[in-house]
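stage 2 :: seqdesign
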């Protein structure tokens, strides 16, 4: 419809919201200043939206890349996996008119493909998507998804924008 901008969900920290585990943000000028002219940006932070506080103890993904656990770095008894996956299920079932998503790289919830997966000894054994993004991709494999690193590459950015403009929104 003319005059209506396509909607893109964006990791809240990239929009300047202080939602990271340490209470900071990862404001991304290109997303906020340039993409906001073409798209309606919808903030989403799986960790805060799932009920975790800011600031909060940092977590990392452990176990296998197909079903990793989100456990505390300093206290491995802190397990927020079910909180994050429950939120993801709820958000994915209620998401409306989303034509794409921009996620925060390396995040245990939002990373696209570069989130470290640790073994029980604290060593990185491989990389995967964060819990939220993994569920998003499984449920909506055709939805355009990119992270804030790739959006700075002109070729990847142009491909993402084109896909979003041609996407059938959720």
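stage 2 :: out
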């Amino acid at each position: 419809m003319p005059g209506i901008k396509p909607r893109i969900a964006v990791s809240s920290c990239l929009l300047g919201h202080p939602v990271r585990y340490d209470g900071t943000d990862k404001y991304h000028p290109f997303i906020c200043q340039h993409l906001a002219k073409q798209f309606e940006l919808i903030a989403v932070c799986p960790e805060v939206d799932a009920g975790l506080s800011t600031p909060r103890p940092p977590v990392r993904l452990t176990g296998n890349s197909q079903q990793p656990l989100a456990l505390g770095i300093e206290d491995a008894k802190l397990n927020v996996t079910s909180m994050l996956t429950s939120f993801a299920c709820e958000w994915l079932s209620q998401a409306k008119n989303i034509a794409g998503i921009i996620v925060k790289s390396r995040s245990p919830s939002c990373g696209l493909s570069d989130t470290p997966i640790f073994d029980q000894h604290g060593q990185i054994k491989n990389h995967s998507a964060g819990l939220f993004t993994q569920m998003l991709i499984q449920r909506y494999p055709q939805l355009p998804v990119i992270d804030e690193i790739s959006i700075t590459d002109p070729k990847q950015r142009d491909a993402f924008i084109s896909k979003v403009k041609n996407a059938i929104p959720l």
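stage 3 :: structure notes
- The longest strand covers residues 98-103.
- The first helix runs from residue 29 to 38.
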